[in-house]
């Protein structure tokens, strides 16, 4: 059902009021990224606020995943800067000039971001408990008991408390992804990046993973960057939806603005494919 213009304006104003006065937890400043001669990110400016949930949608190759990997320091920007929690991520200042940050700085900043990947990346030789406790013990320096307690809490949150001693090969794809979510949550990041976390799952397992993410989002505490092709999920969970194509942000707004009253022909065409798919058996 189409929202009336006044409803659209009120929705946008509600979003603005919610985050008014807050400093961004993440800020991309004129970011570019090239792989050889291929420029995949083309001068992107983007801010993510504390507690905000942003869904990034767009065609394959639009640069969505690369933006997440830049934030996780898995890829280095070609130009521009990224700020995380009030500090430069990839750079430090020296005598008024920006220089590339050292590994010690990157390691510290990396602990503020968690990322869930498409393909779980669990250690097959470790049971669920060891998969979840390894990082808090080795990176955060938690004791065995502290890491255990935190891991059990997070596994309970994702509905897998009874799977502590099970190995990844004994889990379904949905269960593996939920373990991966618990492993990221146990680090208590300030920002969580979800990179197409359901794309490798069988259709019947998608719902269980999305429900866990919805519950985490409903808690409202953590900023989340949700790279997704699940349009209904983006509509339900996000405070703001960003549509990217060919390395640029084409359009952004509240879910109502993006899905009910989009402005660009490029976005209309993209969304039209999902409407068509939904209407055909």
UniProtKB/TrEMBL annotation:
Chain coiled-coil ranges: none
Pfam family name, one: ABC_tran
UniProt keyword list: Amino-acid transport, ATP-binding, Cell membrane, Membrane, Nucleotide-binding, Transport
Membrane topology: Peripheral membrane protein
Predominant location: membrane
Originating species: Paenibacillus nasutitermitis
Compartmental location: Cell membrane
SMART domains xrefs: AAA
A cellular component term, taken from the record's GO annotations: plasma membrane
Keyword ATP-binding: yes
UniProt xrefs under NCBIfam families: ectoine_ehuA
Protein name: Ectoine/hydroxyectoine ABC transporter ATP-binding protein EhuA
MF terms (GO), sorted A to Z: ABC-type amino acid transporter activity; ATP binding; ATP hydrolysis activity
Domain of life, per lineage: Bacteria
Domain ABC transporter: start-end pairs: 26-271
